[in-house]
Amino acid sequence: MCLYETAMPLRTKDFDYHLPEDRIAAHPLAERNDSRMLVVHRDTGCIEHLMFRDFPGLMQAGDLLVLNDTKVIPARVMSDDGRTELLCLRRLSPVEWRCLVHPGKRMRMGHAVVVGGITGTVTEVFENGDRLIRWESPMDLHQHGHLALPHYMGRGDEPADRERYQTVFAREEGAIAAPTAGLHFTPEMLEHLPHAFLTLHVGVGTFRPVNVEVVTDHIMHAEEYSVSAETTRRVNAAGRVVAVGTTVTRVLEAIGREPGHSPRRLPDHAQSGWTDIFIHPPYSFRVVGGLLTNFHLPQSTLIMLVCAFAGRDLVMEAYRQAVEQHYRFYSYGDCMLVL
Question: Which of 178, 218, 303, 323 shows the greatest Cβ crowding within 10 Å of its Cβ?
Fold first, then answer.
């Protein structure tokens, strides 16, 4: 869903930067809030280098943090014969899962696969190549599945990831990937900060590369969300809404742009649905006034969103400094606060 046009179309390469491989964080730090935090001030263009422990001191009276309480499921499973890998994207019923499979050519209509002694049969092949698999009885992902860690970590999941690749406030199961900006928070820090939750189940599309030359030609993936009436009420009453992560930003801005809604105000009732909003420069933010986010892959839709919020030149300078000063990048890495 493209919401705007540009006089001079931005190119995907305009969001590129060089990242040495040793800057990618393959494992988390010992403590969640030990991360470094690069702070970007949009009004002055000032860039500060702080620690995440400094985060509460940057919040103002009237601020509201909004966090994504989705819970990551161990969605990657291997068949008992080791020949087929499945990524369980969405449960449609107790015995039906929409899956991404590899190798796909083996999983034609009617093909059977066995996981943990339970047989699943392909009952539908979707246009994008996903398969609908019906199992003879419910499959327990927590027993047979593994976390689908991002490929750039260069490793499989380990027992410690079951706790660390999950926010401390995760409660609604359904995500393939973690909302990583929230990984830095501890219960003790959140206890003293006004906050509210929404849910967006982060899908495999979050890793989908932008393979077009012109940004506006990219087709965004859709993700499912839900927002309670309590959260919409608190967002409307807040002096400034600080989104914890790009997923929260996308949900709030998608709802805030619906016809008939005034800027900075959401409907006064619960919201749910799917959004494929694609936020890139130029974009006028209606709801979000601050953004906490991790560092994102070059040429990704996520770095485009951050550039829309803070300006491309300022964000790319912030990334240059982060690389120069050996920040840790990506899911288990350090974070950036844009105010």
Answer: 178
Which amino acid is present at 318?
A
Distance CA 162, CA 207 (A): 20
Q: Residue 96's domain is classified under what CATH number?
A: 2.40.10.240
Q: Can you tell me which residue has the tokens 């014969």?
A: 81
User: Which range marks the domain in which residue 118 is found?
Assistant: 76-144
**pLDDT tens-digit map of 41-70:** 999 999 999 999 999 999 999 999 999 999
Residues 298 and 185 in one domain: yes
- Tens digit of pLDDT for each residue in 149-183? 999 999 999 999 999 999 999 999 999 999 999 99
Torsion of CA 48, 152, 102, 304, to 10 degrees: 30
Q: Are 196 and 231 within 8 A, CB to CB?
A: yes
How far is 243 from 236, CA to CA, in rounded Å?
14
Q: Is the link from the previous residue into 103 a cis peptide, with omega within 30 of 0? A: yes
CB-CB contact of 94 with 100 (8 Å): no
Which of residues 122, 144, 166 is at a domain's end? 144
